[in-house]
Structure formats: structure tokens, C-alpha cells
């Protein structure tokens, strides 16, 4: 008994896998001691600021910098002309397109970078921006992607005659690519012959990640040693180093990229922005460090947006509700440059996960990318590579089909789910789902909210409404989503040609503590807490004795960064594998110390024990010390390991979400009465961190579904460039969430973990939106575009004739 208690105490001491360990990073965050880019201040540092275009489409006739240069404290004003001799006036995008760093002849969206002012302080720079005189000649503006594909107006004059783009043929001067997956003919045939077909246009509006901290960088060129140091808001610091080296010609070992603390990334900080490039050029030109920090309006207007997908769907089924086929055509508005952050092979990301959680025998998807006069981007925003679009699409199509069949939408889902014994499951659009148990999760969710009672209450509410007893309707928003995260096998995923593996390097110190460095970078996820837990369980040292370091390319092994919920599936796997290498060497050392053969030892929590002689053991601490102070024949001194992990497949987390919402027909206001979220992310590292991730992701989903949008007028003016117009939920709007889980490990991940950071956004948006739609289902509402702000909900009621 005593032994068992001892053993449990040793396990508890590790604070390893499954423990709700408190976040170690919070000590500095909650005391205002974080170190963000804007906290980097160097002697003699200069400040950069942009002159931006007020027009969405215009020719730049002239730029006069004389007045700005005359202002006391202004050091330089850069324009495209200054960057051209360095071949830096354009830069490659992550999607194989190129983008102007500074306006070259014309501007293509409101807020585009036109000139970069460098001054002694930020205020002088801002004043000088006002003094730069730019003469524009307005051009016709295209904000509608359907119109853009018909129009004679040429947006990208630089490639107007190019018939081939980075992703195949272009059929119009404003067309970027047509990307297709699946069997078109077979799908069309199934649809033609189907008993029931539901058809709908599902629009997922343009929005923006809007992290608390905007983007920024500090570049410092040490001309004597030839070293460039770059601090910045980078979700992928190593990739930034490689790109900076290729662009500038500075050898990669002479560039050090540092991502310090990041105040939220959410996909916004994956791409490379003109501000980064201009700060580098400016430090080279002036010989002084140069800081660039954008403000909130610049962040909303000019850095990467998300979504903007027009998804035309057709779904077919038998009269009994068995789905037989799915067809989808997307018109994707990419803005002025194709700057999506997607693996090269997948210009629409992983959108072809759009068959969702359902066993659909045949499917086809085609995506047309289109240029318009809007800001470039197309980042994930808490959903790996267009998975939120895909989940929203299929979860809306299921609801529309349920209406067409006059069937309960929960039942329709249940009869079409992929069954637990079908995994690994090959989807019609080419994915191999690693593991899942959808029926168990679904039944648990429906039971938890009391689904049948809710439906009865809803039916009564409709009666009462018709009888004039109430003006509030009840909506039950259902979602069962399947995520795809952990890009991802090097054989089919890359960013700018760099394969998407990830890495971990561990160094055990003589006294039995350790540092581990990873190729990823936390932006608030809590990696310093959770990755130490993985290691604690693998190597038997307490998580409290392990430092996790990320984001410095001079010290961390090469990695592809943090987005697409890839850190746990990829770097987390590398961490476990590196830990296992440490343990393998430790076993040899222990065998020598205990004078037994390697095979006579077994691992027990934090030590190697001689089989059958439990009193004879060496703890990992003993072994670490021996690795440094004793000559062990045939074994090198020291205890270190590095692992580069190329995952064999992606991981497929899933979840069942239910939102119960009251909708006021007369005011368009809504109230969320209950929100239940069941997530399955395989093996759970830290339940508390997971819960935090789910709360955050659901709140972003609430924002997107219920009010957040980047909207433009016909002239291409961004109407939502400030937080007065761009909705960010506060504690007032945020409902209470009930979280729950099932645990279906990934069969190919060393510890069975799948990602979770994005799931609540992927599943949350359709749950909120379906609740709104469901409230009006009895009155015939099939589809209404997000965001469902008060006015739009009021308008639904009005259009349905509910205002009497
Ligand atoms: N199973 C499991 C899983 C997971 N986990 C945890 O959780 C977290 C998360 O994870 P993941 O899922 O893997 O993810 P990552 O990679 O790390 O991250 C990323 C994500 O994350 C999220 N979250 C967050 N949070 C915060 N705080 N902040 C931020 O920014 C953010 N972002 C967002 C996003 S958007 Mo993208 O980028 O769009 O693509 S993608 C994303 C971490 O900590 C980890 O460790 C655990 O525990 N367990
Ligand atoms: Cu995405």
C-alpha cells in the first residue's frame, strides 16, 4: 500500500500528461511583465509609419516627399522607386502570387502601403505621413467577385496577359485559379438521379482575426558583423528567416529572427507584411534600428482578412434521408493579391474536408479564386486552412436538406455519420480520417441538453407565437464537425517550399532539470506549460524542472511555426519522440550503473528499475548526473536529443455543439440560453488549457456568427476599420459555456493527441448560425447570410411577414 501511495505521489510530482497544471506564463502576463515587440527598445532606434491609399483602386501619378523630408526629425521616406533597385518593391506571397511592398504605379485596395516614413520618434513619423503628397487618379472599383469575373476592368496589370497562375490556368484577367477535387461527372449523375436534392448558396462573410496586439517588427542591422536581427509578431519565425534571407541576399546564418511574447495571433501573424520588409530595408539604409508597429485601424484594414467564400451547394439523398452525393462550387474573394496562407498544393486549404462527419459516397468541389479591390489575406483565423468555411457549408447544407426532407436534423446527422468501425475512413474528396466515434459523442450531447424536451418546448413556442402569446422564438443550433489539423505530411504540405515537419531539441542538465526548444511559437496557447507536461511523462522529470523555449531562430531547431492547430499534432509528437531518445540513452547509463543488461530494466514513472528487484533502481535525476560526471564505456557524455517529426497523417479532432437561443422577432435581439460543447481531441495534455482554448474559440465564433464583419461600400471603402464598427464581444455578450469531452486517441500520434485550438471556432460558427436559422424554420427560413446582427435578424422576421 505504501509503495502504491509512493508511486502515485511520484506521478503527481511530475505534473505530466492529463494534469490541469496552472500556466507558467501567466505569472508575467498577469503582472504586465510580458515582453512584446513594442517593448523592444534599442539605442538610436528610429520609427517607421506608412502613407496609405485612401482609394480602393487608383493610379499613382506622383509622390512628392519634399515637405515630409523637410520636417525636423524625419530621416527617410521610402517609395517603390527606392525599393526597386533592391528588387524589393514586390515580394512573394505564401500562395505563389506576388504583392507590392509599396505601391508600384497603382493601388489596389484602401489602406494599401504607398510610402514608408522613417523618423526619430513615432509622432514625428505620423506627422510626416500627412506631409507626403500623393497624386491619385481614381479607377473603377470592383468589390463583387462575381462582377470581377465579368468585368473589363483589369485589376492586376502586372499579370494581365498571363494565362497560367501558380495554381493552373486563369480564364479571365481577374481570375486567379480554378482548383478542383473529387469526381465531378459521377457526382452530377448522382444528383440528376436523386430522389431528393437540396440546393443553396451559403455565404461565409469576410472577417478579421483582430488580435489584441497588432502586427509589428523591429529590425536591426549590425553592419560591422553583418548580422541582421529581426523581432516581430511572427507565427512562423524560421520561415520568416528563410524568406528574409532569400529577399535580402543576407546569408541565413547572419539573420536572427525572434518572436517575443505575442498578444494573440489567430492566423493574422502567419503572413509576411510590407511593414516587416520596410523595417529591414530602413535599417540597412539608415544603419539604425527601425521599429514599425501598426495601429488598430491599419490592422483591420490592411493585414490578412479571413473567409469571404461564396459556397454554392447541392446535396442529394434518398427519401429516407441517406445522403448520396455532394456538389460544391466556391467563388473565393481573395482581394488584390493572392496572399492566402495555405500549403502550395492546396490553394483552397483543406476546404475539401467539406463532406464533414458524414459518409458521403461521391462528392465534387471546385473553387474559383478571384481578385477584387479589397485587402489581401485569406488566413485561417482559428481554423486550419478553410476548415471553418467547410464546416459551415456542410452543417448548413445538412439543415437545408433536413427541411427538404421534413426530417429532424439531429436524426439526419445520426443516420449519415461515419461509423466508429469505418475508421481509418477514406473520404470521397481524398482524406483519410484517422479516428473517431461520432455516434457516442452525438448521443452524449443530445442527452446532456435534453434534446427531445427542447424540441417539444420549441413546438409549443411556435404555437404560442401564432396565438399571440409571445414574441420570442426558440432556436436549437446543432453542429457535428470534423476538423483536420496537424499539417502535415511533408509529402503533401509545404509553406513556400518548406516541408511542414516540426521539431524539438532537449538538453538535460547535470542536476536533473532541462530545457527543451521547439520550432513552434506560442501566442497565448500556453506551450511553456503543456509541452513540459508531455516531457515530464516521457522522461520522468517534473514539468516544473523543464523550461520550454520557442521563437528564437538562433537557438530553436528549424520548425514551421504555430497555426492550423499543428503544434500538438506535429511539435508535440516531436517532443515525445525526443523524450524517448533521451530515455533510450538513459537506459544504457542506468544499466551500466546498476551492472545489469539493458533488457533487465523497466521504466517506472521517473526511474529505471531492475526487473524483479524493485529496490534496485536509478532515477532520471541520478542518470542525468552520471551522464555528466562519469565515464561510461561506449556511451558519449551528456544527455541531449533532437527530433524532427514528419507526421504520417493529419489528425481529425471532432465535436458536437448545441446552442439554444431565444430570438426576439421585433428587436432582432438574441439571447443564448445554453451552449454545450463536446470536444474530442484525442489524448488530453492539459484539461484546463483545453477548456480555455474552447472558451476563447467559442467567443470568437460568437463574434463571427453574430456581428463581426469586414464590410466594404461600392467604392471599396472599408466600413468596419475601427472597433466602433467591428464587433468584439465583451463579457456582456458572452454566454456561459458548458464543456464536455470524449477521448478517441489518434492512432498514429506518439501520445494519441490531436489539436484543439481551432475546433471551437470550426464548430461554434455553424452552431450559433444554425440556432438563428432553426428559430425561424417553422416559418420557412432556409438560408440567411451571417453575421446575424440585430438588424439582419429583424430583417429575417420582417421578410417572413412576422411583423404583422
Ligand atoms: N489534446 C490536446 C491538444 C491541445 N492541447 C493544448 O491546447 C493548446 C492548443 O493546441 P493546438 O490545438 O495544438 O494548437 P496550437 O498549434 O498550439 O495553436 C494554434 C491555434 O491556437 C488557437 N488558440 C489561441 N489561443 C491564444 N491564447 N492565442 C491565440 O492566438 C490562439 N490562436 C488560435 C489559433 S488560430 Mo490559426 O493561426 O488561424 O491557423 S491555429 C490556432 C496547446 O497549449 C496544447 O498543448 C492539449 O492540452 N491537449
Ligand atoms: Cu481555415
TrEMBL record:
Function description: Catalyzes the oxidation of carbon monoxide to carbon dioxide.
Tree of life domain: Bacteria
This protein's name: Carbon monoxide dehydrogenase large chain
UniProt key word Translocase: no
Residue runs in coiled coils: none
Sample GO molecular function, one term: molybdenum ion binding
Subunit structure: Dimer of heterotrimers. Each heterotrimer consists of a large, a medium and a small subunit.
Amino acid at each position: 500500500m505504501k509503495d502504491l501511495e509512493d508511486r502515485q505521489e511520484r506521478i503527481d510530482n511530475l505534473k505530466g500528461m492529463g494534469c490541469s497544471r496552472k500556466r507558467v506564463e501567466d505569472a508575467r502576463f498577469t503582472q504586465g511583465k510580458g515582453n512584446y515587440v513594442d517593448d523592444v527598445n534599442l539605442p538610436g532606434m528610429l520609427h517607421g509609419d506608412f502613407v496609405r491609399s485612401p482609394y480602393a483602386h487608383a493610379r499613382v501619378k506622383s509622390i512628392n516627399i519634399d515637405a515630409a523630408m523637410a520636417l525636423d526629425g524625419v530621416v527617410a521616406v521610402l517609395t517603390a522607386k527606392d525599393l526597386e533597385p533592391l528588387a524589393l518593391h514586390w515580394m512573394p506571397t505564401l500562395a505563389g502570387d506576388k504583392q507590392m511592398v509599396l505601391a508600384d504605379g497603382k493601388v489596389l485596395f484602401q489602406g494599401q502601403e504607398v510610402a514608408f516614413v522613417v523618423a526619430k520618434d513615432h509622432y514625428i513619423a505620423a506627422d510626416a505621413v500627412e506631409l507626403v503628397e500623393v497624386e491619385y487618379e481614381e479607377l473603377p472599383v470592383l468589390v463583387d467577385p462575381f462582377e470581377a469575373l465579368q468585368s473589363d476592368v483589369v485589376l492586376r496589370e502586372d499579370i494581365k496577359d498571363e494565362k497560367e497562375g501558380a495554381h493552373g490556368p486563369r480564364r479571365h484577367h481577374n481570375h486567379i485559379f480554378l482548383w478542383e477535387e473529387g469526381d465531378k461527372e459521377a457526382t452530377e449523375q448522382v444528383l440528376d438521379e436523386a430522389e431528393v436534392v437540396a440546393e443553396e448558396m451559403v455565404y461565409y462573410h469576410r472577417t478579421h482575426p483582430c488580435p489584441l496586439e497588432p502586427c509589428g517588427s523591429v529590425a536591426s542591422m549590425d553592419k560591422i558583423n553583418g548580422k541582421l536581427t529581426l523581432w516581430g509578431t511572427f507565427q512562423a519565425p524560421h520561415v520568416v528567416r528563410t524568406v528574409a534571407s532569400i529577399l535580402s541576399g543576407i546569408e541565413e546564418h547572419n539573420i536572427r529572427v525572434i518572436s517575443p511574447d505575442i498578444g494573440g495571433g489567430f492566423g493574422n501573424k502567419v503572413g509576411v507584411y510590407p511593414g516587416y520588409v520596410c523595417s529591414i530595408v530602413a535599417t540597412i539604409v539608415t544603419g539604425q534600428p527601425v521599429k514599425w508597429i501598426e495601429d488598430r485601424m491599419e490592422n483591420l484594414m490592411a493585414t490578412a482578412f479571413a473567409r469571404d467564400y461564396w459556397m454554392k451547394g447541392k446535396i442529394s439523398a434518398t427519401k429516407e434521408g441517406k445522403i448520396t452525393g455532394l456538389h460544391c462550387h466556391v467563388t473565393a474573394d481573395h482581394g488584390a493579391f493572392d496572399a492566402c496562407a495555405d500549403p502550395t498544393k492546396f490553394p483552397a486549404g483543406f476546404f475539401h474536408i467539406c463532406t464533414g462527419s458524414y459518409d458521403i459516397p461521391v462528392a465534387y468541389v471546385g473553387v474559383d479564386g478571384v481578385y477584387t479591390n479589397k485587402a489581401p489575406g485569406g488566413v485561417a483565423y482559428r481554423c486550419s486552412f478553410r476548415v471553418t468555411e467547410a464546416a459551415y457549408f456542410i452543417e448548413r447544407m445538412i439543415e437545408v436538406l433536413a427541411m427538404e426532407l421534413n426530417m429532424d436534423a439531429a436524426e439526419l446527422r445520426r443516420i449519415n455519420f461515419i461509423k466508429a468501425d469505418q475508421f481509418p475512413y477514406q473520404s470521397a474528396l481524398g482524406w483519410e480520417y484517422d479516428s473517431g466515434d461520432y455516434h457516442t459523442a452525438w448521443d452524449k450531447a443530445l442527452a446532456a441538453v435534453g434534446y427531445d424536451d427542447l424540441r417539444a418546448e420549441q413546438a409549443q413556442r411556435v404555437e404560442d407565437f401564432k396565438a399571440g402569446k409571445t414574441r420570442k422564438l426558440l432556436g436549437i443550433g446543432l453542429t457535428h464537425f470534423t476538423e483536420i489539423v496537424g499539417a502535415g505530411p511533408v509529402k503533401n504540405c509545404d509553406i513556400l517550399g518548406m516541408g511542414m515537419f516540426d521539431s524539438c531539441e532537449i538538453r538535460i542538465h547535470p542536476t536533473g532539470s532541462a530545457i527543451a526548444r521547439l520550432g513552434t511559437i506560442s501566442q497565448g496557447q500556453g506551450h511553456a506549460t503543456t509541452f513540459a507536461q508531455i516531457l515530464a511523462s516521457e522522461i520522468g522529470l517534473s514539468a516544473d524542472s523543464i523550461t520550454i523555449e520557442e521563437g528564437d531562430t538562433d537557438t530553436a531547431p528549424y520548425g514551421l511555426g504555430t497555426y492550423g492547430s499543428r503544434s500538438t499534432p506535429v511539435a508535440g509528437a516531436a517532443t515525445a519522440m525526443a523524450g524517448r531518445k533521451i530515455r533510450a540513452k538513459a537506459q544504457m547509463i542506468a544499466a551500466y550503473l546498476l551492472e545489469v543488461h539493458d533488457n533487465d530494466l523497466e521504466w517506472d514513472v521517473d526511474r529505471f528499475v531492475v526487473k524483479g528487484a524493485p529496490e534496485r533502481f536509478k532515477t532520471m535525476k541520478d542518470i542525468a548526473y552520471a551522464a555528466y560526471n562519469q565515464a561510461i564505456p561506449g556511451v558519449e557524455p551528456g544527455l541531449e536529443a533532437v527530433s524532427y517529426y514528419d507526421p504520417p497523417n493529419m489528425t481529425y479532432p471532432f465535436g458536437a455543439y448545441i446552442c439554444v437561443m431565444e430570438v426576439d422577432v421585433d428587436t432582432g435581439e438574441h439571447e443564448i440560453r445554453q451552449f454545450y460543447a463536446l470536444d474530442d481531441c484525442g489524448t488530453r495534455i492539459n484539461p484546463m488549457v483545453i477548456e480555455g482554448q474552447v472558451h476563447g474559440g467559442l467567443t470568437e465564433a460568437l463574434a463571427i456568427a453574430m456581428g463581426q464583419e469586414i464590410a466594404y461600400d461600392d467604392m471599396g471603402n472599408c466600413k468596419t476599420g475601427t472597433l466602433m464598427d467591428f464587433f468584439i464581444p465583451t463579457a456582456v455578450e458572452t454566454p456561459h459555456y458548458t464543456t464536455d469531452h470524449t477521448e478517441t486517441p489518434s492512432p498514429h500520434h506518439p501520445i494519441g493527441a490531436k489539436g484543439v485550438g481551432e475546433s471551437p471556432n470550426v464548430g461554434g460558427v455553424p452552431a450559433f448560425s444554425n440556432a438563428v436559422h432553426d428559430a425561424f424554420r417553422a416559418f420557412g427560413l432556409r438560408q440567411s447570410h451571417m453575421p446575424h446582427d440585430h438588424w439582419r435578424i429583424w430583417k429575417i422576421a420582417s421578410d417572413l411577414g412576422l411583423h404583422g
